[in-house]
Amino acid sequence: MGRRQVGGDSVMLWAMFSWETLGPDIHVDVTLTRTTYLSIVSNNHNEFEVLTWPPNSPDLNPIEHLWDVLNKLIHGGPTSQLTGFKGSAANILVSDTTAHLQGSSGAHASTGQGCFGSKRGTNTILGSMAALVATRACETDGCSKEAKLQCPTCIKLGIQGSYFCSQECFKGSWGTHKLLHKKAKEDKKDEEKNCMEKEVNTDPWPGYKYSGKLRPHYPLTPMRPVPGHIQRPDYADHPLGMSETEQTLKGTSQIKILTPEETEGMRIVCKLAREVLDIAAMMVKPGMTTEEIDHAVHLACLARNCYPSPLNYYNFPKSCCTSVNEVICHGIPDRRTLQEGDILNVDITVFHNGYHGDLNETFFVGEVDEGAKRLVQTTYECLMQAIDAVKPGVRYRELGNIIQKHAQANGFSVVRSYCGHGIHKLFHTAPNVPHYAKNKAVGVMKPGHVFTIEPMICEGGWQDETWPDGWTAVTRDGKRSAQFEHTLLVTETGCEILTRRLDENGRAHFLSQM
């Protein structure tokens, strides 16, 4: 049982939960229109945390913590859904006995006990709840009946009052009552914007000569924690983020041939990585920050029992790479808001059950110019043409010839400083896969090889430089760069795209934005 005081009034919300679990973790699977499919709980309207059982902190009351997220999600209005609900949950009021859900057509209507979330493996969450509120008079004009129902959105926004005697009075007052919500949300946004403007230093390196218009927005948020039950790569807790296993094999050109068991491990982790990227894709729009995208990526990884591979890899501070406009790769997510006309690459790698899965895509932010469309389209075509050539007996150096030929035919250049790589139990290993022509890559493709192809294509010259953060690679001339990446398995007759999108016939997300 959990008990919580909210909204500044003496309104006590009580929740009773019973749960069954055969595993160590309990997750709530939810869909949010702004962030998409995550297994999360929420401690306020913007920040999310994964709930583990038993809780890592002895001070955390998991029942109260779970009530927080259910109160938010169930009362989220027509734009939020719970997995297991068909349709939308809307017009919900908290009463003295239960939470009343009046869903749209096909929705799961419930009073008392219902299923919140869905089965994930052997885990199930069941919840029943009740609320007790102080006696009030109905706030509908002309009605003086005793009110025991309170608007849940007002509770969420911290608006005092808002009591009604019935669903009918609540609906009848909706036209004017909803203006309170709008005003509270606008005030909250203004407050957050003012706080951010005071905190953010957009130029952490005074005197540095940037090659383009993009600027970092500091300070960065602290490195996010990963619960102890999630398996970690060997560099996760290293003070310098070094992988000792990778260091041991540094310089070797021997390419590992995966066993059937290892191949299946790669299929699983690459599917999970694809799910995480698809979550990030739905967040790309003007006004969103790359920090918000990184936060959602981090949570999506944890919800799938994955470690976000970039986190602390040679001290990289975030869970994914976000590269905007002239950034070639390894951009660090920060508080800069995405602008109409930007192009954004999101690079995802996850670690699960001992294996890494790696992919990235470039997205349009709102409406973009024709030059951006040509650059992104050509980059994607470079990747797919190279993939078409993958089969046993092909030399790895040949892929660069294919990529550069297509890029140059369209007036673009190919980055030379960064290449594709072998990947499996190691994040980066043999083979090296350069994307430019006449390279000296060693090795011939054989069944069981797993590696990435990830061409970086530029509007101007291919030369790059790195920001003082030691990570952010940008074009030296400040012109835009795009990138796409897949993890591939060489088969007996060709290759399998392990990170292929499962819907839209495998098409990249930007093609739906054209």
TrEMBL record:
Cofactor names: Zn(2+); Co(2+); Mn(2+); Fe(2+)
InterPro entries in alphabetical order: Creatinase/aminopeptidase-like (IPR036005), Pept_M24 (IPR000994), Pept_M24_MAP (IPR001714), Pept_M24A_MAP1 (IPR002467), RNaseH_sf (IPR036397), Tc1-like_DDE_dom (IPR038717), Zfn-C6H2 (IPR031615)
Catalytic activity: Release of N-terminal amino acids, preferentially methionine, from peptides and arylamides
UniProt key word Zinc-finger: yes
Keywords, alphabetical: Aminopeptidase, Cytoplasm, Hydrolase, Metal-binding, Protease, Zinc, Zinc-finger
GO MF term set: initiator methionyl aminopeptidase activity; metalloaminopeptidase activity; nucleic acid binding; zinc ion binding
EC number: 3.4.11.18
Main location: cytoplasm
GO BP: proteolysis
Binding positions for a protein per the UniProt entry: H330, H428
GO cellular component: cytosol
Residues binding Zn(2+) 3: D347, D358, E485
Keyword Transcription regulation in record: no
Domain C6H2-type per the UniProt entry, residue ranges: 135-188
Residues where Zn(2+) 4 binds: D358, H421, E454, E485
Cell location: Cytoplasm
Note describing how the cofactor binds: Binds 2 divalent metal cations per subunit. Has a high-affinity and a low affinity metal-binding site. The true nature of the physiological cofactor is under debate. The enzyme is active with zinc, cobalt, manganese or divalent iron ions. Has high activity with zinc; zinc cofactor is transferred into the active site region by the ZNG1 zinc chaperone.
NCBIfam families named in the record: met_pdase_I
HAMAP family according to UniProt: MetAP_1 (MF_01974)
Function: Cotranslationally removes the N-terminal methionine from nascent proteins. The N-terminal methionine is often cleaved when the second residue in the primary sequence is small and uncharged (Met-Ala-, Cys, Gly, Pro, Ser, Thr, or Val).
Record family assignment: Belongs to the peptidase M24A family. Methionine aminopeptidase type 1 subfamily.
Subunit structure: Associates with the 60S ribosomal subunit of the 80S translational complex.
Protein name (database record): Methionine aminopeptidase
The species this protein was found in: Hemibagrus guttatus
